[in-house]
Amino acid sequence: MTYCVGLCLEDGLVMLSDTRTNAGVDNISTFSKMFTATAPDERMLCLLSAGNLAITQSAWNRLQEGIAFDGTTHTLFTVPSMFQAARLVGEAIREVYRADGPTLSAQNIGFDVSVLLGGQIAGGPMRLYLVYAAGNFIEATPDNPFLQIGELKYGKPILDRALAFDTSLEDGVKLALISMDSTLRSNLTVGLPLDLLVSRQGTQTIALQRRISDEDPYLRLVRDGWSAALREAWQAMPPPPWMES
Amino acid sequence: MTYCVGLCLEDGLVMLSDTRTNAGVDNISTFSKMFTATAPDERMLCLLSAGNLAITQSAWNRLQEGIAFDGTTHTLFTVPSMFQAARLVGEAIREVYRADGPTLSAQNIGFDVSVLLGGQIAGGPMRLYLVYAAGNFIEATPDNPFLQIGELKYGKPILDRALAFDTSLEDGVKLALISMDSTLRSNLTVGLPLDLLVSRQGTQTIALQRRISDEDPYLRLVRDGWSAALREAWQAMPPPPWMES
User: Is A135:A55 a contact under the CB 8 Å cutoff?
Assistant: First the structure.
């Protein structure tokens, strides 16, 4: 399993993923699920992937080698807009589907892949897309500034309650880490270390890219601090008035 | 969909369920998913059900009419222990499976049902079981004092973090309501009003049974108070040290 979350905020982009892959719970590994394509000041694109590792790696390699697309061969370094980048990622997934889908299907293996694509290309807005296994996609909007893939439910309530388009990048990083921590605690197949990327609006540059391990003092502070804060919060609530004590 | 949670704590039992049923998102209704069988001071049993409403209602009716079991006919009022009550619930589900399973299967409808059974029969311990569609079951223990059925992921992180066997009944009710509220916010097919039941250890009696509506002042306090407390908690955390401001 996997948990990846992307936030497309007024001030910029936050992308966070775990690194655990598993083929059964008795076969777990660490693979980065974060891929970037950057030409500083011109474009900054970041992909997070969930699903079958063979599919996501094949799609990423195809993207690097170039995809036949609109009569020419494109990579994430040549597409002129984020919308075209999302189409390109969808096309890469469809190429894998054409190549591997029939055999996977014959062996009763689902074509399981989804990708978060966030970034900005000079002259255009910052955007965040969720590309599905069919190669189609949706986009985050100010009304719904985050998108998730993989094991999304454990970490969704905090984002539903707390995140808004005008949340600062610093608070966005905090909330993404809290959301991830809830998932790490409840699903063993989502695991540390984490990959974090932050890009500020209008810079087309990576402001921060960091591998966060179990020993990271800030991650520990978030984990322990959040548990303590929740405990204080529910303990401070008055008891239900319907119960005689 | 449905969300039901049961807590089997040192001091007693807390059972909480939503009441929404749906056949597609364009056809939602309110049905209680809580059933009780009580003989005050002698036995107090409470069932919460999730899954196909026709299956759960059929199972409940069969339990009331009596199930052929160990050479005689039993109901929840005649079984001698909670373990036998869980076996009886499992047998009721298997009766429905024998009656309806083949036709459901022929029409490609899954046999989707699960039941939380909590309670106490005089002379025995308080117990909480989760009965599966196959009629087999697991039991809550002090290490894992809560069980959930239905849409369980949204509401699990708070219970994972905060609930322990020695949590008081009052705090258990609070935490169950917070867990339910996280689910209500994130899944439209889980809906108000709620059904709550509390039974104190050793009493074999219902201490509290309450229908909780959207207008309930305490539910509102929990919902608003929890959102505010979470906001304060993450806002009070220091910003990530890796980010230049």
Answer: no
The answer to whether residues A77 and A37 touch, using CB atoms and an 8 Å cutoff, is yes
**Residue A13: which H helix or E strand, with range?**
strand A12-17
Contacts of A245 in chain B (CB under 8 A): 170
The pLDDT of residue A244: 65
What per-residue confidence (pLDDT) applies to B145? 98
Q: Which residues contact A237 (CB under 8 A, 6 or more apart)?
A: B174, B221, B222, B225, B226, B229
State the fold for domain A3-232: Glutamine Phosphoribosylpyrophosphate, subunit 1, domain 1 (3.60.20)
Q: Among residues of chain B, what percentage have pLDDT more than 70? A: 99
pLDDT at site A23:
80
Domain range list for chain A? 3-232
Query: In this model, does residue B152 exceed pLDDT 90?
Result: yes
Name the residue among B156, B218, B225 with its Cβ closest to that of A240: B218
The CATH classification number of B3-231 equals 3.60.20.10
Best of A234, A235, A243, A244 to substitute, by most chain B Cβ atoms within 10 angstroms, is A234
Interface contact flag, A243 B160, Cβ < 8 Å: no
> In Å, what is the CA distance from A201 to each residue of A10, A44, A121, B236?
7, 11, 11, 25
Residue of B159, B211, B242 best to disrupt the A interface, most CBs of A under 10 A? B242
Q: What secondary structure, in 3-state letters, does chain B show?
A: CCEEEEEEECCEEEEEECCEEECCCCCEEECCCEEEEEECCCEEEEEEEEECHHHHHHHHHHHHHCEEECCEEECCCCCCCHHHHHHHHHHHHHHHHHHHHHHHHHCCCCCCEEEEEEEEECCCCCEEEEECCCCCEEECECCECEEEEECCCCCHHHHHHHCCCCCCHHHHHHHHHHHHHHHHHHCCCCCCCEEEEEEECCCCCCCEEEEECCCCHHHHHHHHHHHHHHHHHHHHCCCCCCCCC
Looking at beta carbons, which residues of chain B come within 8 Å of A186? 153, 156-157, 160
Question: What is the ipTM, given to two decimal places?
Answer: 0.83
Size of interface A-B (CB pairs under 8 A): 132
With contacts defined as CB-CB under 8 Å, which chain A residues touch B154?
153-154, 156-157
Residue A120 is inside which H or E element, if any? strand A113-121
* pLDDT (tens digit per residue) in B48-65: 999 999 999 999 999 999
List the single residue in B177, B198, B243 with the smallest CB-CB distance to A170. Answer: B243
